[in-house]
Amino acid sequence: MRDAAKQRRIGLFGGTFDPVHKGHLAAARRAAEVLQLNKVVFVPAADPPHKKHTVARFSQRVAMLELALADTGDLFALSLVEAQRAAPSYTVETLIEFKDQLRGQRLFFIIGADSLLEIHLWYRYNQLFTLADFIVVARPGITDGQVTSAIACLPQGFVVKKPNFHWQSRDGASSLYYLRDGVLNISSSVLRRELAEKKCPEALPGQVLEYIQANHLYQGTGKDRAI
């Protein structure tokens, strides 16, 4: 008999992962620990609409994710669902697809606090919070006050359930959690700059750094899109 409870709480971690780093892995582990997630699925954006370009190609970003997740056991998984649709990669369409595929299971979408501040610009953002609960991870430069102000502006009318951690929509249909502790202060843009300066950032998993060096990635200024 299928053990439905085993797959009941699924985290979806979207992003460009350009490149994936230890901060991403730490955030995913922290989310799984605090929210008791059975699995966290990394969902790289094939054609992110809110970024002019990525430096590494989608196939390269996927290869780096595969290396980073290789020794993480059954907790983490990788989905290429956004590459299977026409561009651009809209989060609302990804959540609709996962909600249809994983019926009966509770979905949690993991984003950084910087993304929360811009979520009102996302395609059909009003619908996002009807499709999954949200886990917001603290990011460098984003204050707790900015996070709480952004939450207060969301159309679902989120109200505090547990101060500084848990909010719930007024209709009780969706929740939002803020993880402000236990995450690493790492930025992909800073790592790209360090790599362009021929540095070897410790924030990169070893196999990912080796792949970057072998494929001569991020050696320019960050403006040279990989083809």
List the main descriptive attributes of the protein structure presented here.
8-stranded mixed sheet, single chain, disordered C terminus, Rossmann fold, 227 residues, globular
How would you sum up this structure, described in words?
- The chain is built from 8 helices and 8 strands; from the N terminus they run E-H-E-H-E-H-E-H-H-E-H-E-E-E-H-H.
- By secondary structure, it is of the alpha/beta class.
- It has one domain: 3-Layer(aba) Sandwich (Rossmann fold).
- It has an 8-stranded mixed beta sheet with strand order 3-2-1-4-5-8-7-6, with helices on both faces.
- It starts with 8 loop residues before the first strand and ends in a 13-residue tail after the last helix.
Distance between the termini: 47 Å
Order of helices and strands: EHEHEHEHHEHEEEHH
Helix content: 25-40%
CATH architectural name: 3-Layer(aba) Sandwich
What is the β-strand count?
8
Regarding quaternary structure, how should these chains be classified?
A: single chain
How many structural units, i.e. domains?
A: 1
